Amino acid sequence: MRRKYRISGLTPQATRELSFPIDDRGTVKTVVQYFLETYGFSIQHTTLPCLQVGNQQRPNYLPMEVCKIVEGQRYSKRLNDKQITALLKVTCQRPQAREKDILETVYHNAYSKDPYAQEFGITIDERLASVEARVLPPPRLKYHDSGRERDVLPKIGQWNMMNKKMVNGGRVSSWACINFSRNVQDGAAGSFCHELALMCQVSGMDFVLEPVLSPCYARPELVERALKGRYQDAMNILGPQGRELDLLIVILPDNNGSLYGDVKRICETNLGLVSQCCLTKHVFKVNKQQYLANVALKINVKVGGRNTVLVDALARRIPLVSDIATIIFGADVTHPHPGEDSSPSIAAVVASQDWPEVTKYAGLVSAQAHRQELIQDLFKVWQDPERGTVSGGMIRELLISFWRATGQKPKRIIFYRDGVSEGQFYQVLLYELDAIRKACASLESDYQPPVTFVVVQKRHHTRLFANNHNDNRAVDKSGNILPGTVVDSKICHPTEFDFYLCSHAGIQGTSRPAHYHVLWDENNFTADGLQTLTNNLCYTYARCTRSVSIVPPAYYAHLAAFRARFYMEPDTSDSGSMASRGPPPGGRNTKAAGVGNVAVRPLPALKENVKRVMFYC
C-alpha cells in the first residue's frame, strides 16, 4: 500500500525551482533531478508548486502528479453556496420519510438485543414517544390605516403585503445608485431602481422617485474609491441644502466574492450610510414584484421605519410587556469555521428601541477571544486620562439608547441568548447576568430592573411529528407540524422551565423546533405567558411576511454577528468571523482581547446613524 501523507500546504516556488540538501556537506539536489534519478520518473508539470508534507525545519516536497487524494475524507472548512445547496438536496427529507427512516434504523439496530443495554437494564422502545402538544393561535398584525387592509390574521405562519401598507413607512428623500455589474447598462439600472422606488411608495414609504445622481457603472476592484467618490458627489449636491444621503442602492454581479462585504464595511463603518445590495439576476427578472416587495421591507427598517406591529402591543394587552416599559435583548456569539485557529469570535447584542411596539432593534457587535462563548463586552470599565473611570459596554449603550428613544429607562428586561450548549448554561448565566446588573447600576446605583434570561437552542436533534400525516388539520402544506406547536412536558426537564416551540411553517425538509430554556426569571412569567410572547414575536420579523423559527431578537443578533465578519480589514477578511465595534470612546489605550498569542484587532466603530437602525437586515 502506498504511504499516506498529511498536506500542510503548497510551496511558494514552482517544482523546477525547488532543491534540498542531501548530505551534511551542503550538497543540494533539485526535486526534478531527485525523482528522475531515484524513481526514473520525469516530472511533466514543473511550473506547478509542490505539496508540502513536512515542516519548516524539515521540508518534504511531493510533486502533485505523483499523488492521489485519499477518498472519503471529511471536509471541515466552510462550504460555498453551490456545495451547501447540493448538500441540502441530499439531506432534506419530508417529515413522513424522516419518521420512517428513524423507525427503520431503530428496528435494524435491535437495541433490545444489545448485551450492554441488557446488562444495565436499559430498554429502548421501537416506537416514537407520544407527547401532548398544543397549537398557539397566531397574533393579529397591524398595518397602516391608509391601506385597504388595516390588519391581518396570518394563516399557517404566512401572509402577504397585498392591499396593505407598512405601519410606519420610513422616509427616503435622497438616494443614489452605483452599479458594479458589467452586464447591467446604466439604463437598465435606472429602470430597476425606478421600479424599486415605486414598490417602496406602494408599500407605504415616503420615497422620492428621482435619485440625487443617475446610476453609473464602477469597477469592482476599485470599490472603495467608487463608493467614496459617489458619496462625495451626492454630498456636494445635498450638503449646501443641509441634507444627507439616506440610502445607497448597489447592484452587484451574481458571483461577487468579497465585494458585498467590502460595500457593507465601507458604507457602515466609514461613510455612515445604509445600503441595499441587489444581484444582477434580479435586475433582469421578468416577474420581480415579489422580490421588490421583499426588498422594500428591508429598506424600510434600514431607514428607521416599521413594517408591522402586534395589535395586542398597540392595545397594551401583552402580559409582562405592555404594563411597564420593557426592553427585549437578543444576543449571540458566532465562532470561526473549523481550521481557522487564530480568528476571533464575534459577539452581537440587539435591543428593542420602541415600547410598547417592541419591533425596532438597535445592534452592536464586538470581537473577542477565539471560541470564547461568554460575551466579554456586555459591560466594561476603563481608565480615561481626562475623564477618569469610565463605564461602557453593549448593554449599557443599548439601555441608554432605549432611554433616549422612549424617554424612560426600561423597568423590565427580557434577554434571549442564542448559541449556548447545556454544559455552559450556568457559566453563561452567572457571567452575563452579572454584566447586565453592573450595566444597570452604572446608570443609577439603585437601578435594578427584574431580568428574565432565556437561552434559545436550534442545534439539537429533537423532531416532532404529527400523529397522522394525512390530517390536514394537524400539518401544514409541507407535512410538518403547524406553526405555534408547543411542547412543555415529557421530553422537557422535569423541574426546570423549558419548552419546545415550532413557530414557523415548514418550507422543505422536516421542521426543527426551537428549544427555549428559562435560566433566570425575576419577572415571574407563567409558561403560557412566555410561550405566547415568544410565539407572537416570531411574527414580527422584519425581512419577510412569514413567522420565523426563532425569536426575532436572537435572529437579529445572529445577522448582526454575521454582518460584522465583513468589518475586518481586507487582508484578513477571508479568515472567518472577526469584528469589533472598536475601542470605547476615550478608551483607545485599552488592551485588545487576546486570541491565543494573537491580539484581536479593534475595528472601525459603526457610525452613530447606522447603529440606530436595523442596518443588519
TrEMBL record:
One Gene Ontology term of the molecular function aspect: RNA binding
GO biological process annotation, one example: regulatory ncRNA-mediated gene silencing
Organism superkingdom: Eukaryota
CDD domains, A to Z: PAZ_argonaute_like, Piwi_ago-like
PROSITE patterns, A to Z: PAZ, PIWI
Keyword entries, A-Z: RNA-mediated gene silencing
SMART domains with a match to the protein in the record: Piwi (SM00950)
Residue span(s) of domain Piwi: 247-569
Region listing for Disordered, in residue ranges: 573-593
Domain named PAZ: residues: 1-71
UniProt similarity note: Belongs to the argonaute family. Ago subfamily.
Name this polypeptide is given: Argonaute1
Upper classification of the organism: Eukaryota, Viridiplantae, Streptophyta, Embryophyta, Tracheophyta
